[in-house]
Amino acid sequence: MTVSKTNDKIYKKEFNMGDSIKQINCPACGAEMQKVFIADKGINIDICTQGCGGIYFDNKEIQEFSGESENIEEIKNALSNKTFNPVDNTKTRICPICKIPMTKTFAIGIEIDTCYKCGGIFLDYGEFEQVRKNFKKREKVKPVSLSESDSIDIEKFLKEASQEEANGVFCRSVTNSLSSKVFLSVLDTLCHSFYKFY
Asked: Fewest Cβ atoms closer than 10 Å to its Cβ: which of 103, 145, 156, 181?
């Protein structure tokens, strides 16, 4: 599949990465990797379709496909009906982007080749499915927005914190008691400072 310059700009902006148009060679077998454009994600995945069947993910790309519910039809189609060559898993792999040795990391029962310079990840044939079965995609953190009507009653908070201190919620030992008293002292100071502005 041909990669357009527009898609490349989207790719670079979204993932803060290098040139996605550049053809790369497989870190495991040396064959030229095929660029597979994933339209709904706006990114290119490098797949060794003519050699070992490995997949190279640029920094953060793998997160887009890790959950089992993610659509990976384009990747499956690129790998289907092919026979792949075996590779030497003991061989040090060189990052196709940075040209430095990749680090072998053992996780979820597989050996993952990672470049600590650019964040690229290489998975041997069949490992991608294992990652998808064992990986839970993190939910995006939703920013908190406070409007003028969302005010915090600092005095009420201070009273509740003091009550919890008296009931022993904050402290379970002498050390924690001291740290909770320091916390309450700081909170009390903040409370009085807060009300000086109003």
From this structure: 145
